[in-house]
Design a protein that fits this description.
The structure is a homodimer of 394-residue chains.
Chain A (H helix, E strand, L loop, with lengths): L6 H9 L8 H15 L4 E8 L4 E9 L11 E2 L4 H7 L13 E2 H9 L10 H14 L4 E7 L2 E8 L10 H52 L6 H18 L7 H13 L9 H4 L7 H8 L1 H8 L7 H9 L20 H15 L11 H10 L7 H12 L4
Antiparallel strand pairs in A: 1-2, 1-6, 2-3, 4-5, 5-6
Chain lengths: 394, 394
């Protein structure tokens, strides 16, 4: 006895949720797998419209007997015979009655009693379609349209039971192909938009790096300082999470990254004569120099939604004992993002050569940091830095 | 005679293409309109899950008799009786047999022979549901689930013909509500992603503005110069399109905007002593000053995909007669983006006060520009600027 398939139910089951899958590759795999498994054909594939290139691509071929081609390998332009057959009005009468073209149809059309219009090259085209279908190991091509536009062609191999396709089955495939094509298009649009969002984010971050680099173009003592402070800061924050002294959300690391890059941006507004002075600064010069924290916040005002990052810029010269600037914040009143940068900034300054003194060794700098835990430095980031040193990670 | 509706066909027609509509508001309108018109109910509405707030929102109510509430006005949390009825397992037996709840069902359940479990408060809940449905002027609530999650509830008013809803109709509404809810969710995700892409783009542009502002923090003579050059450049380009001398794609205006903002960014690397010198520069100082074009390109290397913008930065001191710098490009060999900025830059410099000379009037500056058309300036942007002046648009 022949087992009957409830096509309506199968279609609903197969289509349901397709729209929620936004990974085009995964979606196409699922759709073709559904066809192969549920509908019992030896293999199935899909030719999909690529709106970016206005051509068609063989996306996947799956099953025991399908032609194995790498994804996106085979492209079909509008002159491809199969595409022509399904898109050009003069040929539509050849397929209208079945919503599909089968190799058996082609044989009947070429060798049968119905006379083909000799004017429009239908016979030639059908012979070309036949040879393409044989190449693709396909016995039925089922088109899917949306608003008269050919979105996809489903390619079917022989049925597992060796029987011919029935009209009910072809109608089912047509509906499935159409749902599938729209879901795939939807997923592709989704992917495009996601890529655009990521690209724009990357652009923002790269512009931030450019912005940070302007300080180094001015201040000859800071070569590489910005990058090192950023890296030390991120390492300290990770270590604070690792040793259980803090629990930062992923967004914090982004804020810290931006704050690290831009912590000294206000120096752009400090006169070069002070910035690059080799000797000790006078009291007045130091007073001007200290303004770089607030000038930084001023410069970054257009990015004020990065509240945490701006706090890092503003308060990275505050001290745990309240003797820092610009506000003399104290103890736990100090934003942790600023406390982290303060440790990273001081450590990098101590371990870098300056014209008026040689760099300390890392070990000596760590000793200095240790002595100042709870005095100049917030204990949590300072201890994290010491741990990183002890673990050989600095 | 009662007209029969082919529900399967209606469902296909209504669902088809929903996935291609990515504006949630439009999509919801279309769906509710479809229900009201095709299915002949007096009004319909939809309560939709809002994943961002983990609650439900009455999105729209449409028809002759529906409760008129502003979109997003009515929120339903998880304690709302209707939401509870469709989400809590202990109440599911109350609706299982019909895939919906109707006021007539509730009356039967409360006053009928079936005994309600007195333990779980079903009776109380049903009474609350009834009063909510009366408030919403609804006789049937049809839930839509995706992977066991309540996505939406379709609210139906009375049928136009006054008859009761039949089970076949309710099944149809259930399938439609489910397709609709997924399409709406899809559209919402799309909108979120689009907003994110736009937000990130905006962030990039604002960071570019911050970057541009760093020059003004250094160079005291350029206050407002960057912004004015950018605006003049855009006006010139628009005028070139208006007078038919050029045909720029939209992307060009973005490149020009960025190039205008950043054309002098390389000055950040020029010593303040030269940048802010009040007297005439020595030959050597001028040699250093001229490097700002190439230093600009160097600083902007991380943004090298903005090829046009970088050409604007690099070549905005080239002259049409080939006597400019850094490369002495000549005539049509000059990138048009740079030629535009050159005109805008010179015009703004001439009409601004400098310590060693007073500003020219606009008319005098325009005379200077005119004299130099085809000499210092590319004729197309120079003529466009003259036209803007003559039209009183400067």
């Amino acid at each position: 006895m022949k087992t009957q398939i409830d096509y309506k139910k199968e279609l609903e089951a197969a289509s349901k949720g397709m729209i929620m899958i936004h990974d085009p590759k995964l979606l196409i795999k699922l759709i073709v797998r559904t066809i192969v498994h549920k509908v019992q054909v030896r293999h199935a594939g899909m030719i999909l419209h690529d709106p970016n290139k206005n051509s068609y691509v063989l996306k996947i071929s799956r099953g025991q007997t399908g032609v194995k081609v790498p994804a996106d390998f085979a492209r079909f332009d509008n002159n491809n015979p199969i595409i022509k057959l399904f898109t050009q009005n003069e040929f539509k009468s050849l397929i209208n009655h079945r919503n599909a073209i089968l190799t058996e149809d082609i044989n009947k059309l070429i060798f049968g009693e119905t006379l083909l219009d000799p004017q429009n090259g239908a016979k030639d085209l059908l012979q070309q379609v036949m040879s393409q279908m044989q190449m693709l190991n396909t016995v039925a091509c089922v088109p899917a349209y949306y608003q008269d536009k050919l979105l996809a062609i489903l390619l079917l191999g022989l049925k597992n039971d060796g029987n011919r396709f029935e009209q009910e089955e072809l109608n089912f495939f047509g509906a499935l192909a159409s749902d599938a094509a729209m879901a795939i298009r939807n997923a592709q649009l989704f992917e495009d938009l996601k890529k655009e969002a990521e690209k724009n984010r990357d652009l923002f971050l790269r512009t931030t790096i450019v912005l940070a680099s302007t300080i180094e173009a001015k201040d000859k003592y800071t070569h590489g300082h910005t990058e090192r402070v950023t890296n030390f800061s991120l390492a300290i924050a990770r270590q604070m999470v690792a040793n259980g002294s803090a629990n930062f959300p992923p967004k914090f690391f982004e804020s810290l990254y931006i704050a690290g890059l831009l912590h000294d941006i206000g120096k752009i507004a400090i006169p070069e004569s002070i910035l690059n002075k080799t000797g000790k600064l006078t009291e007045e010069e130091f007073h001007i120099m200290k303004q770089h924290t607030l000038r930084g916040v001023e410069i970054l005002k257009p990015l004020s939604e990065f509240k945490d990052s701006l706090e890092g810029v503003k308060y990275h010269h505050e001290r745990y004992d309240g003797k820092g600037y610009p506000e003399g914040l104290k103890g736990e009143g100090l934003p942790i993002i600023a406390a982290i940068i303060a440790v990273a900034d001081t450590f990098d300054a101590m371990t870098s050569d300056r014209p008026y003194r040689k760099a300390l060794t890392k070990a000596a700098a760590i000793e200095e940091i240790k002595k100042n835990i709870g005095v100049q430095f917030h204990p949590k980031p300072a201890r994290a830095l010491v741990e990183l040193f002890e673990q050989g990670k600095l």
